[in-house]
Amino acid sequence: MIIARVVGNVVATQKHKAHEGKKILLIQPLDLQNQPMGDTIVALDAVDAGVGDRVLAVQEGFAAMTSVGHTESPIDAAVIGVVDLVELA
Amino acid sequence: MYLGKVIGRVVSTIKDQGLDGRTLLLVRRVPNGPVVVAVDAVGAGAGETVYVCRGREASFAFKPADVPTEASVVAIVDTVAWGDRPMALQEDSTDSGPAGGPDADKKDEL
Predict the structure, then answer these.
(1) Least CB-CB distance to B53: which of A12, A39, A75?
(2) What is the mean pLDDT of residues A17-39?
(3) CATH classification code of A2-82
(4) Lesser CB count within 10 Å: N end or C end of chain B?
(5) Does the residue B106 lie in any domain?
(6) Residues of chain B found within 8 Å of residue A51, distances taken between Cβ atoms
(7) Taking the C-alpha atoms of B102, B103, B104 and B107 in order, what is their torsion angle to the nearest 10 degrees?
(8) Residues A37, A31 contacting (CB under 8 angstroms)
(9) Do B103 and A15 touch (CB under 8 A)?
């Protein structure tokens, strides 16, 4: 899992049916200083996150598919939590 | 998944039977990422902004058919909104989007 910031909503009319009715988010992975790290990712939303939220995201198919309730569908990333706090030891 | 732009297609005559009748698209990850060959699941064409599913999940786009692919185009993107504002998807657009956004430096190339 990674920590990321939701930076956009993706709108697509023509898409795979497994993605219909789901919010599609553009997320930016963050480092531990909350700075952008690497390229943005398109992820399906499983927790009703919104732009600006810091979230927990998975980039593995089984986890992503399970979280949005579609098995055997073309989903390789999902937002599965909204981060309240990160505490560094 | 990630955002990409369709920059072309690949034609192959001799290929795995599972790829018969499928369109192979060349997709560049935006703004300036690598190019992959992805199997089209939605009828996308050159110049369109799409998003690509990677990995084993990519082949699930064609269920119940078994298509041997590790990348599939699973949606054609209409807009990407940053908050309430739509982001430009075309390079020649004059919409500058929100200044200072997390990806403000990338928007013009999407």
Answers:
(1) A75
(2) 93
(3) 2.40.50.220
(4) C
(5) no
(6) 81-83
(7) -150
(8) yes
(9) no
- B45 to chain A, any CB pair closer than 8 A? The answer is no
- Retrieve residue B87's tokens: 């982001």
Domain count of chain B?
1
pTM above 0.90, yes or no: no
Delimit the domains of chain A by residue range: 2-82
- B87 in a structural domain: no
> pLDDT by residue (tens digit) across B35-71?
999 999 999 999 999 999 999 999 999 999 999 999 9
The least confident of A29-33, B11-15, B46-50, B92-96 is B92-96
Q: Chain A closest CA to B70's CA: distance in Å?
A: 11
> Are B16 and B94 within 8 A, CB to CB?
no
Q: What is the mean pLDDT of residues A12-40?
A: 93
For residues B86-103, one letter each, b for 16 or more C-beta atoms within 10 angstroms of the residue's C-beta and e for the rest, the string is bbbbeeeeeeebeeebbb
